[in-house]
Amino acid sequence: MSTMYGGVRSKRQTVIGLIIAYVVMGGMSIMTVVPFLFMFSTSFTESYSMMTYPPTLIPSNPTLENYYEVLFVFQNGLFPRWFLNTVFTTAAITIGSLLLNTLSGYIFAKKDFFGKQVLFTLLLSTMMVPVAVVLIPSFQIIRMLNLFNTYWALIIPALATPFGIFMMRQFITTLPSDLIEVAKIDGAGELRIFWSIIVPLSTPGMAALGIFTMMNAWNAFLWPLVVLRSNEMRTLVVGLAGVQGEFSVNYGMVMAGSVLTVLPLLMLYLFFQPYFVEGLRLGYGK
């Protein structure tokens, strides 16, 4: 009898634990989603009715004027150019970062060389350095290389990151080394091993890193603000920051621009979300 009662009590505790977990996760999901819904709703709201109290998620007189202003009027219709700048630089940074970080992670994970642990420790220590500390030295290097106000000024500094190398090193460490040894016996070189074995097996980890890199590149503000001068070279985040005037703010345009900026990134994340979860699970599961 005691065994039966113990089993019933255990099942009851499990059910209660699941209910609590779902309630907590549901509450956190609502807290996360509501601001996005309010942003989306406000983007269709006229300026004069935006500050009504209490605020509503459904606008009384929805309009597309804010989107028209952002796309075709603000800064002489430079939004499409900013969008293309952001897409190009984000794609270049993501592809280059995946290649370099995966290659570096493979070396730290599967190769032995003098000073490997010391070099890896120094690499990780740079993650604790604030971005503002290296901002001026990085700007001086870009200026000496005559890359100021160019796409290269955005792409080159973001190609290899300590976090990316660490993440890919952790993931590639979980891959069996026997495959590499068999490939060497068959006469495969290092580049062939990397491209034909490491890269296909590292797809989940690369997808997770790609999402992180893409989000950081798409939402970057401080560095593009420093190295870009002309309006035509600006990215979305930097360009749309000009919507907020010195003495007034058109919140409808701000929200419309925010929706247009977030939507492509959100769609890409939803598409790659299974790979993102799998990459994190395999890379940090050990």
Summarize the structure.
With 286 residues, the chain is mostly helical. It is built from 13 helices and no strands.
Give a description of the structure.
With 286 residues, the chain is mostly helical. It folds into two domains: 2-42; 66-283, MetI-like fold (Orthogonal Bundle). The chain is built from 13 helices and no strands. The longest helix is centred in the N-terminal third of the chain and has 41 residues, at 2-42. The mean pLDDT is 84.
SSE inventory with pairings:
Layout: H1 2-42, H2 65-73, H3 79-110, H4 116-125, H5 131-144, H6 151-155, H7 162-173, H8 178-185, H9 190-201, H10 203-219, H11 222-227, H12 236-240, H13 251-283
Q: What is the molecular shape? A: globular
Weakly predicted, low-confidence segments: none
Mean pLDDT: 84
Major sheet size, sense and barrel closure: none
Number of domains: 2
Strand content: under 5%
